[in-house]
Amino acid sequence: MSNLIDRLPPGPGGSKLLNTLQVLRNPQKAFSKWFERYGDPFLVHALNGPIVVTGNPKLVKQVFSHSAAEFDAFGKRALVPTLGAGSMLAIDGEQHRQERKLMMPMFHGQRMKSYGSIVRQATLAKMAERQSATSFQMLDVTTAVSLQVIIEAILGSQDEDTTLRLMRLARETIRRSLPILFFSPRSQISFFGLSPWDRFLEARKQLRNAFDEELSRRKQNPKPSEDVFSLLMNAKYEDGSGMSSNRMFDELGTFLFAGHETSAIAMAWATYFLLSAPNKLEKLKKELASCDSSDPAELANLPYLKAVVSETLRLNPIVTEVLRVLNKPMEFAGYQLPAGVALAPATVAVHYNEEIYPDAKAFIPERFLERNFASNEYFPFGGGARRCAGSAFALYEMTIALGTIFSKYELELLETRPVHPVRRNVTMGPSSGVRVAIRA
Ligand code: HEM
């Protein structure tokens, strides 16, 4: 006999807008307050619908191990107009499974390893541009590196002018993609071409035109190439069909959007943490000195460097909660949740659980050398069937870029006040750009 209570978990009432704004502003604070007040899980009504939030690893496990068929993508009403109906972030079920099968190999395994030298070259070039600056924002460097890396991985080196043009248009589209546009379809309002939504659509249109031109150029003049663009042009789904140009644009845009700001922010945080903890930095430098730091493969395998990256993503997860929508009712924590409710494992809550991470607010990379954390204890990349499709690529990129920077440069942190996480987009990032100077 089921002892289910046929009602939803308790949670804050209040307006959806106010609830959403609290989560946008400071998810960690909002979640802690609501966990304390209503228990775990709690239900919050947000602009994107009702969300059941949990920071309990047992419940997180239930979410990540549940059949993919029971969940739909979250926030589709806002995502489809921004990223397109063909975006991996917006599709569900069998279509989503097939899409991942087609796209994942391009950012994993041997393919991913071929991007190592792109990361190293981009990092050296962007740091060299700052060589004579008195000071600069580390986030500017890491953003330039990650944008260059993802665009080069996608486009290859077929045509430098096209790459530069697409990079400029992509940067502009990203700059105009304000967080609220992704959180609320109601913010997607046109006003004589002047509203933020109009400005975003205009940038996206220009990016699309440049993409179409590149696609026809490559169709007319096919060259054997290993970049993601060319691979997708020839890729086949299980039924033998190819990818439409609409779908290709949506997917490449999604990888660009999901894959550049995230890594950039994480690298800026890692720099901040290392420069704030001289003993950890010294340990890393010792490790870097013991390897051939010009070899991306060696850098990507350094245990302490990898631990620095893991701890950075634990301490300040870029995405603070992972979201899915139930497409059928589910028994969850003693509640009977109806279809349409979203489930949200709160990364910020679990990553700060003192039972799993003693001294959780401190930057201690060593914890990742001492033990392995389960996928319901540590999930900066989400989990289950929708886990980040670029996680291996991101980790590879971060270790190589950070290894290159810290093996070659002596940096000094110039921030006079503590830097804390603030909302940037769907992501959280540092409240300042992490100002540094090169000292040697
Ligand atoms: C530090 C860097 C990154 C972080 C922290 C991050 C985090 C995440 C998270 C939390 C999700 C949602 C997972 C879920 O719902 O379970 C996600 C999804 C995704 N990420 Fe990343 N990501 C990063 C880098 C990247 C990169 C470099 C790429 C592309 C090369 C990428 C592509 C994607 C895609 C396509 C999805 C959608 C997956 C799906 O719905 O099946 N991400 N990411």
Could you outline the blueprint of secondary structure elements for this entry?
Blueprint: H1 16-25, H2 27-38, E1 42-46, E2 49-54, H3 57-65, E3 71-72, H4 76-83, H5 93-103, H6 109-113, H7 116-128, E4 136-137, H8 138-155, H9 160-175, H10 179-183, H11 196-220, H12 228-234, H13 245-276, H14 278-289, H15 296-299, H16 303-315, E5 324-326, E6 330-332, E7 335-337, E8 342-345, H17 347-350, H18 367-370, H19 391-408, E9 411-413, E10 421-423, E11 428-430, E12 435-438
Parallel strand pairs: 2-8
Antiparallel strand pairs: 1-2, 3-5, 4-12, 5-8, 6-7, 9-12, 10-11
Helix pairs in contact: 1-2, 7-8, 7-19, 8-9, 8-13, 9-11, 13-16, 13-19
Bound molecules: protoporphyrin IX containing FE (HEM).
Describe what this molecule looks like in 3D.
By secondary structure, this protein is α+β, with helices and mostly antiparallel strands. The protein is 51% helix and 9% strand. The protein has a single domain, classed as Cytochrome P450 (Cytochrome p450), CATH 1.10.630. Strands 1-2-8-5-3 form a five-stranded mixed sheet, with helices on both faces. The longest helix has 32 residues. It starts with 15 loop residues before the first helix and ends with a strand. Protoporphyrin IX containing FE (HEM) binds next to helix 13 and helix 19.
